[in-house]
Amino acid sequence: MRVCAVDLKANEANIVLLDSDNGLFSVPECRAKKITVAKPEAQESIQHFHRTMSKLVEDYQVEKIVIRERPTKGKFAGSSAGFKLEAALQLIEGINAEVLPSSVMKQTLKRHPVDVSLKELGLKQFQEQAFLTACAYCNQHTN
C-alpha cells in the first residue's frame, strides 16, 4: 500500500510517501516535499493546491492520504488556511483521505517506535511529522 502523509503547517503541506508491504516500509522518491500556498484566502490558490495534489496522487499511484490531526483550540491550534488545505485533500476524487488523531498516532508510535534517521531516508527535518504520521498509520493495525 502506498500512503501519502501530509503535515499541514499554516499555508504549507509537508509531504512524505511511504510504501508498506507486509510490515516492511520504504520511502519512494517524490517530486514534492513541500507545497506552499501563497494566498490561502484566494479561491484560485486552493484550487491550484487541489489540482497539484490530485496530480501527485495520480502520478505516484497513492492509495490513501493520511493527514496529521491538528488541534482546533489552544496554543498549537491549526490555522484557517490549514483547514482549507485539509478540505481540499479530502475532496480529491477517487482517494480516501483520513485525519489521523494525535492520540492514535502517539499510542501507535509508542508500541512501534521508529528507529531510523530522516537523513538515511533522504527526508528533510520539516518532513518528520509527516513521516511519523505515515508510520503510525501503517502500524496502527499491527500487533
How would you describe the overall organization of this protein?
The chain has 143 residues and is α/β, with parallel strands linked by helices. 38% of the residues lie in helices and 24% in strands. Strands 1, 2, 3, 4, 5 and 6 form a 6-stranded mixed β-sheet that branches. The longest helix has 17 residues.
Provide keyphrases for this structure:
6-stranded mixed sheet, globular
In short:
By secondary structure, this protein is of the alpha/beta class. It contains five helices and six strands, in the order ββββαβαβααα.
Order of SSEs, N→C? EEEEHEHEHHH
N/C terminus separation: 18 Å
Number of discrete helical segments: 5
Mean pLDDT: 91
Largest sheet: 6 strands, mixed
Portion in beta strands? 15-25%
Counted beta strands: 6
**Sequence stretches where pLDDT stays below 50 over 5 or more residues:** none
| Helical percentage | 25-40%
Structural class: alpha/beta
Overall 3D form: globular
* Rg on CA atoms, Å: 14 Å
Ordered list of secondary-structure elements with their pairings:
Blueprint (H helix, E strand, L loop, with lengths): L1 E8 L2 E10 L2 E3 L7 E3 L6 H17 L4 E5 L11 H11 L5 E5 L1 H10 L6 H4 L6 H12 L4
Parallel strand pairs: 1-5, 5-6
Antiparallel strand pairs: 1-2, 2-3, 2-4
Helix pairs in contact: 1-2, 3-5
